[in-house]
Amino acid sequence: MSAWVVAYVAIATFCFVARRRRERLRGREAEFVLFGLFCLALSVHTAGAAALHVMRDAALVRIALLASDVGRLLGAALLVHVVAQLSQVRLVPRALFAIYGAAALLGVASVIEHVRQFDTVAEAPVTLLGLSVVEVATPPHPLGAVVSLGSFAAAIFGATVFVRGALRGRADLLPSLWGSIALVVSTSYDGLYGVLGQCKPLTSPYGYAAFVMGVVMSLLSRYVALRERLEERASELKERSAEVARAYEELRAAQAELVRKEQLAAVGELSAVIAHEVRNPLAIITTAVATLRREGLGEDDRQTLLGILDEEASRLNRLVGDLLRYARPVRCERQLVSPREIVERALALSQNQTSLKVTLVEPEPVERIHADPMLLRQVFENIVTNAMQAMPTGGSLTVTLVPHAESGVSGVEVRIADTGEGMDTSVRDRALDPFFTTRAAGTGLGLAIVARIVDAHGGRLSIQSDVGAGTEVRIFLPQQGEPTPGRRSVPPEINRTSSLPPMPVEVRRAFAGRKA
Q1: Whether residue 258 has pLDDT greater than 80
Q2: In-domain check, residue 339
Q3: In this structure, is residue 451 part of a structural domain?
Q4: What is the per-residue pLDDT for 267?
Q5: 3-class DSSP state for residue 440?
């Protein structure tokens, strides 16, 4: 019995430590706590029963008897709760209150009874299963019989619940079932001799030991089964991970192919633009040169043709410049700049437009941001120029600067609104596409370059427009110039850190060589 007391204390300690360090689910915590308390109650009961075999002092004997009865009462109440928790049987709060309340009342009554019969103890030979042993004997009393019957009822409840669980396929409850049967036998023995009024040594400590062993074996079998399921799930996850890895490689290959096709499409668009935009100026230049070679050409005609040559050369130079700006990387040399100052310099383009009303609004001062001032000036000048071209007969241009934050990133938003002709849905959706333009003299690269510069600053550009209602361009620029969360990701095969356009390396090298 002394060895079992040590075992009960060790099990209870493990349960409390496991609850604190390993278990996070509330159900598992309750299961460990209840079983730990149950083992502590059994340690008190078993220690009291073991002391009756060695103690002879009346005071110590009464304390041992009291400890044995109180531990047995609390163990019986906790046994019902542990069985319900282990078998996943829900007990209503009223039932738990009644069980623990009855155990508390019987415990108080047991204390009073032992105080009343404090001196009525003596050594007496008793017979246990045919063996004669010497044990401290006390006169039998009805309260002891009630305690024994309560323990027997708790054991019957446990056996019944485990039988039902085993019949429903809970193989992990079979060890607990055998332990509960041993407990039923021992508590029935104690209850029988308690009712008959015969003084016999308690056998419930041995039955509780068998019950605890059965519960421990059930928990071990449960966790072994859980481990096997986890190993199976880990194997399945490993296979799924391998499938995902293969799918990812296939996706990367398909993405690389798609990027290659997009690059070829971009080269085709570039070729078409160059063929269309360069052929006409070249034809005009060729005609003008042929005319200049004629003899007898007047000075006025000669000056006219030279003007045409200069105009078409400027047009070609503008086209090549736009192509170079679009093709070369956008590298931001950030410094602390004032968005208002950059916008004011861009609005200087409208000073000579007497029919254009320009308004700069700043409801509250905006903070400086880390950005490239030259690139931002190019952005705002391009947008202001587009707005002026959309209002050939005059109108109103309003620029608003407001502090703004997106996805937790603070910065400034610049809103440029005009009262021009506006754009329909199809034009608005393609406004940022390279080489798309609605003007005869345009290259379609202005807004594409603007979008790439804003993207390189980690910002966001949006266009709101309707036919006849004007256009509003909104540009958000983060204060630190970092990419905002949730931005569109690009394939790793394309180095977008320098904001290169989607064109093959050979084309990029050709443009770089042309620039050099």
Answers
A1: yes
A2: yes
A3: yes
A4: 67
A5: coil
SS3 per residue for 411-426: EEEEEEEECCCCCCHH
Any domain includes 198: yes
Residue 376: which CATH number? 3.30.565.10
Closest CA to 438 of 460, 462, 471: 471
Range of the domain at 20: 2-237
pLDDT in tens, 5-26: 888 888 888 877 765 544 444 4
Count of the separate structural domains present in the chain = 2
Residues 6+ apart with CB under 8 A from 446: 322, 382, 385, 386
- Tell me, what's the pLDDT at 198? 57
C-beta contacts of 184-189 below 8 A and 24+ residues apart: 184/152, 184/155, 184/156, 184/159, 186/155, 186/210, 187/148, 187/151, 187/152, 187/154, 187/155, 188/152, 188/155
What's the rounded Cα separation, in Å, for the pair 419 and 415? 13
pLDDT tens by residue, 334-367:
888 898 898 888 888 777 777 888 888 888 888 8
pTM: 0.43
| b (16+ CB within 10 A) / e for 325-337 | bbbbebebeeeeb
Identify whether the C-beta of residue 308 lies closer than 8 Å to the C-beta of residue 288.
Answer: yes
Give the separation between CA 100 and CA 156, rounded to whole angstroms.
Answer: 17
